[in-house]
Amino acid sequence: AHLERAGLIKANLSGAHLALAHLEEATLDEAHLEGADLPLAHLEKASLEEAHLEGATLLEAHLEEATLAEAHLERAKLQRAHLEGANLYGAHLEGAFLMLASLNEAHLGGAELRAANLRGANLEGCTGLTSDQLSKAILDEHTKLPPEFQDMIPAPMDEVDGDGPAGDDENPEE
Known about the structure:
The chain is mostly loops. The protein contains one helix and no strands. Helix content is 3%, strand content 0%.
């Protein structure tokens, strides 16, 4: 579907199948997209303020520079999604699946990240991010965080010996 720059404010697209859809610069503020299927969709620079995307599938979707302020993305599937430069201010990402997603330069001020799966996600250059937000999210050793949060990256499971990450002791085998 080619819906570039479409005005779909408060549209009801719940459960819609929009794989590969072109919605660049579309206005979907307050739209209902609960459970919608949007894999590989193009939503670059789209406005989705306060949109309802609970449980939506956005695998590998392009949301670069999109506005998702106060959007409801609870349990949304955003694996490998492109959210570079996106505005996620106050977004509800509780339980969202963001594995391997790119959120480089995204704004996450006030976003709810409780139980959000950020394994392998790239959050380098994010603004508005706090340690409190990250402490509620699921991270792994492959999660890329801004420099000030490097200490929050968990040690790889094969490097934990019970006392802390491997390498804590200098030359432990000598």
